[in-house]
Amino acid sequence: DSGVTQTPKHLITATGQRVTLRCSPRSGDLSVYWYQQSLDQGLQFLIQYYNGEERAKGNILERFSAQQFPDLHSELNLSSLELGDSALYFCASSWGGAGGPTFSTDTQYFGPGTRLTVL
Amino acid sequence: AQTVTQSQPEMSVQEAETVTLSCTYDTSESDYYLFWYKQPPSRQMILVIRQEAYKQQNATENRFSVNFQKAAKSFSLKISDSQLGDAAMYFCAYSTFGTSYGKLTFGQGTILTVHP
């Protein structure tokens, strides 16, 4: 158990709908990362938040958005869903470190993932 | 942009034997981190081992060790005394630190089968 929790574990929805995926980082971790794992794209970085602020953006679609709340949990919102959005969505967390990134503080630990199926 | 390549889509090994998984990467940076993650059928991503680029000494974690060749941009994973529980997809990953603060770039993965 990595200490990172994600809900729900599975989500089945229809095209055009909107869903919210939730992530709680390990206790004390300031950084949250979202990744998408699909058969055709592999594992891709979507977005990172550090202590409530967006820090880095990857291949995240405009239909997708995320935020990190004051209690450091994060939500990934996916809207206008398409069949191709079906994937495993992972959240990872790392401490981040008050003095800036270091090896120990930036090792990422992953949650169990949310399996999204769009029908 | 950094890229990570795992050229072996599948590998197999007999229980108790040793297997090496290959990984190469491309970067123009001098300081970075490298990781191997394991993804068993449960789909959980589990950190196996990590390496800091400035450290010449190869990382070791029990039966897992790496061969880090910085000049060749190579980072292979050796699994000794393979066990049935080692069967999984293995991902090599790269992260920088600094402005991008550690986002991971993954390879395509290698499926490892362990035969009893």
Question: Mind telling me the C-alpha Rg of chain B?
Answer: 14 Å
Largest sheet of chain B: 6 strands, mixed
pLDDT averaged residue by residue of chain B: 92
Oligomeric state:
heterodimer
Describe this structure in words.
The complex is a heterodimer of chains A (119) and B (116). Chain A is mostly beta strands. Chain A has one helix and eleven strands; from the N terminus they run E-E-E-E-E-E-E-E-E-H-E-E. In chain A, strand 5 and strand 6 form a beta hairpin. The mean pLDDT of chain A is 91. In chain B, 0% of the residues lie in helices and 51% in strands. Chain B has strands at 3-5, 10-14, 19-21, 24-26, 33-39, 46-52, 60-61, 64-69, 74-79, 88-95, 104-106, 110-115. In chain B, a hairpin with an 8-residue loop joins strand 10 (88-95) and strand 11 (104-106). The model of chain B has no long low-confidence stretch (mean pLDDT 92). At the A-B interface, strand 4, strand 5, strand 9 and strand 10 of A face strand 5, strand 6 and strand 11 of B.
Topology:
The complex is a heterodimer of chains A (119) and B (116).
Chain A: E1 5-7, E2 10-13, E3 19-24, E4 31-38, E5 42-50, E6 53-57, E7 64-68, E8 74-78, E9 87-94, H1 103-106, E10 109-110, E11 114-118
Parallel strand pairs in A: 2-11
Antiparallel strand pairs in A: 1-3, 3-8, 4-5, 4-9, 5-6, 7-8, 9-10, 9-11
Chain B: E1 3-5, E2 10-14, E3 19-21, E4 24-26, E5 33-39, E6 46-52, E7 60-61, E8 64-69, E9 74-79, E10 88-95, E11 104-106, E12 110-115
Put the structure in a nutshell:
The complex is a heterodimer of chains A (119) and B (116). Chain A is mainly beta. Chain A has one helix at residues 103-106, and strands spanning 5-7, 10-13, 19-24, 31-38, 42-50, 53-57, 64-68, 74-78, 87-94, 109-110, 114-118.
What brief labels describe this structure?
heterodimer, A: mainly beta, globular, B: mainly beta, six-stranded mixed beta sheet, four-stranded antiparallel beta sheet
